[in-house]
Amino acid sequence: MKPVLSDIQTLVRLQLGLKQVGTDDHLVEQLGAESADIVNIVVALEEKYGIVIDESAMADLETVEDLFHIVEQQM
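The structure corresponding to this sequence follows.
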């Protein structure tokens, strides 16, 4: 299954309980995600796409689009 940016936006939106999430939104600064939220989002993405995201890659996550690119790279 190829990753779709809108699917990742929806997953982030649902995880954080928000009405709207933009691709350039910063997970922590703009969306209010805490480290546990980010871990839960990453686990959900790993399960959805059957991938493993390295912990070092998680340190580089800033935006929703960053999540998309990391998933895309693991495919």
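The chain is about 55% helix and 0% strand.
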